Amino acid sequence: MPIRDLKEQIARLPEQPGVYLYFNAAGETIYVGKARALRDRVRNYLGAYGSSPKTNALLDDIVRLEFIVTDSVVEALALENNLIKQRSPKYNILLRDDKNYPFLQLTTTESFPRVLVARGVERDGNVYAGPFMPARFARKTMALTHKLFGIRSCNEVITGQRHRPCLEYDIKRCIAPCVESICGTEEYGRAVEHTRLFLEGRNEELTRDLTVQMMDASDDLRFEEAGQLRDAIRTIQTLGDRQQKMATVELGNRDVFGMKVGPAGAAVQVFQVRGGRVVERVDLGTETDVVGQSESEVLTAAVQQFYELRNAPPEVHVPCEPDEREALETWLTEREARKVRIIVPQRGDKRGLVDLANRNAGHSYQTRFNTDTAAQYDALATLQHVLALPSLPRRIECFDISTFQGSETVASMVVCEDGRMKRSEYRKFRVTGAKVAEHQGRGASGAIRPEDVPRRAAPAPRDSREAIAHIPLPADGSAGRVANDFASMHEVVRRRYRRVLEQGGPFPDLVLIDGGKGQLQAAYAALEELGLANLMAAGIAKKEELLFTRQHPDPIALKATDPALLLIQRVRDEAHRFAVTFHRKARSMRDLGSQLDQIAGVGPRRRRQLLTTFGSVAGVRRATREELAAAIGPKLADAVLAFFAGQP
Fold this sequence. Notes:
Elements (H helix, E strand, L loop, with lengths): L6 H5 L6 E6 L5 E7 L2 H6 L9 H9 L2 E6 L3 H15 L7 E3 L5 E4 L8 E4 L8 E3 L6 H14 L17 H4 L14 H15 L3 H17 L3 H16 L15 E9 L2 E10 L2 E10 L8 H14 L6 E3 L7 H12 L4 E3 L4 H21 L2 H17 L7 E10 L2 E11 L2 E2 L5 E4 L3 H7 L38 H25 L6 E5 L2 H13 L7 E4 L5 E4 L6 E2 L5 H30 L11 H11 L2 H6 L2 H8 L1 H12 L3
Parallel strand pairs: 8-11, 11-12, 13-17, 17-18
Antiparallel strand pairs: 1-2, 1-3, 4-10, 5-6, 5-7, 8-9, 9-10, 13-14, 14-15, 14-16, 18-19, 19-20
């Protein structure tokens, strides 16, 4: 593991707050993290291999480590946020805004900002509001900013040196910052601030500010300006209920986070509550899976990235405790220059709104990651929990044996990745049967004798190669066939994973066996021979549809409608179909074959020559040595005669 090469450097890290950065061989930053104590946090990665596929991939990519010491965890949090924004590391949780609906962008990075329609939120220092649903509401709101506050709509470079204003000023849709004598920088700045309050839904604060200006204008006998401000206040109050479906006076100003974290990724819903009313809903989500990341880690990333672009209200309600909550609160408080609290509500209307946001996040998760895909990942998550697997079974390899009274025994292996069958990696096997003789013993006729097979389970063998001989078998005459199934499963599993070892992977998260305890024990015996006993395997018995694992002494029964069981059945049935199809083909090839094919040295050309010369297999059997030698030579003639001499 490459990170172990950095063990000495990690041991020398300071036990102080800071940020650590991982780099790959190309020199790219692939992960940025913060720590209260750098040495302790980074040292945890040395033992993290195997915790999740994402962590494994990160650890395999790391070739270099750098760190930056800070004075506090809060500074580390802010620095981490800035570095993630600048470098977009591959393995950090990066949330994206919902791009189905438009946003409004207040271009505060310009000297004289404008309001524009944007299809997404960018980390560019501008102010964003939205999304607006329906889309036409965005343009209506933008038009209101021109009418109410006189924000410019042109693309002109503003210097204040224009001789006269344009038509927009005459129809009272712009306060003309292009003419310095009409509107100076300070006055336009107030209009921009009013626009910002309006877009953020802080209507009460905006109304108070405009009321003060209206009274000042009235006192100074500027009645036309006072009338315009009065109309603006009335319009804002009328628009105060836009898209408001929930209102509780006690909620005040706050943001409410809801979250759904699943194997496919994460979806986050943020309800922006202003004046006790939900005025906006913002949808965030990951573009990749977050396997191995806890809800607290995802929530922390969501809070950091959401407020990097927006102002935080006095309270932020979240569904669970985020990592480093005190540091997050301090960071937000310093950014807003006022107290900001992060709260996990437990009851009442506040908890109800968090639950509502969670439900909306669940719906967003299903929509964002496709309903079928999300359902498949949910089934995999259920399967991980039921079978107590260390990681999500994203790759499942399933084995099935197909035979007819012990003849033409074949096996199949099918692969299921992320709930979908991967036909390109299917494999089929012809079972040689060597393991049957090796582990069970044969009688004079070559068949397994029931008396040679133990009726009851024997003590666990010391050598895994003996394990297959200690499998309890039925007492009826089917013992030979069952033993053949066990030995066949042992042979096929051993052949498969010996090849996987030689190729260096990929290894499955779950080995699924079509059968019960006996077949499962045979599979584990093969894995132990190869040193792969750490692989997780499970068996599924037909009819009863019970699951068997080595970790559970009793079989596991799932409901017939359980998505996890339905997934296993689908994979098992596909393996069975593939095995039966191959078995039928093998039998047909046997039936279409000739007895002459069994003679050593006789290939298709010699066989055709014999049949052409003697007419049939019976004619070949009746031929003399001289006749055979004339057709195929003396050496093959002797082989043909020896073959038929041994036939009844």
